[in-house]
Amino acid sequence: LAGKLTARVAAPIAVTLLAVAAGVWLFAGWERLASPGFAALLIVVLLYGLFWAALAAAVDGLGRSSAFNALTLIGAWVAITMILPAAINSIAAFAHPAPSRTDMVLAARAASIDADRARDASLARYADEHGGGKPPGAAGAQEATLRRLATQEAAFQRVEAIVAEHDAQLARQRDMSDRLGYISPAYLTYQAMADIAGSGETRYRAFLDRIRDFHIDWRAFFLSRAKAGASLTAQDYAAMPKFTEADEELMGPAPAGHAGALIGVALPALLLAALALRGYRRAAPR
User: Fold this and answer.
1) Co-location of 260 and 240 in the same domain
2) 134 and 39 in one domain?
3) Among residues 27, 47, 58, 222, which one has the fewest Cβ atoms lying within 10 Å of its Cβ?
């Protein structure tokens, strides 16, 4: 029995691992087969396959009919791969609702309008207090530019606060989803594979952080010259900030970086394997 079970488990998992290796070789090059990310991918696929094998063995160890086993496994597959991941995201979104992108854009636009109104109100108040006069130097183009830049800076600070609150709410959603994700091995496997492929949340957030840093450097580069009234020179064009995406391993971090997900899949697999072993021993002829 042990030999048959091992063969039935090893064959599909081995075929899957070979298919994964062939896909990486065809689409990413053979050098990726020696990368830490590829090793992490193989470990994730192996553990996920062992989880389903252990689940099937545990159900079979109950000693029920084939129809019962099939229906139970189908129900488990639907629950683990569809219902639980959807429930995780829904619970996180309900617990920490984030404003829609449309609301965020409207709030940012309103912040910019409020900054313009605050500038106009300040100028009007100055005119009332000084008998209709204008602030000193108001007639110059440089002074008008500086006032406009100050208004834009005020609007930028308000918009940044709105975006920061939106991002903080999304971060709380992600944290809750990560904690709840341990109830679904399929959810953990997907997250690990996405990170390994370079399309996961970790790399996405790092990319947004680089964009934000570049935006700050870009604004500072031009604002410092605008406030000083300096014209751009050929040297300034060469010194402009340039956005460069850091070179990263396409296949993601080493296996140690996914220890939480790997443990979250391995522990249920071990528990199910223990239940299967107990069931087979109970059903074995004496």
Assistant:
1) no
2) yes
3) 27
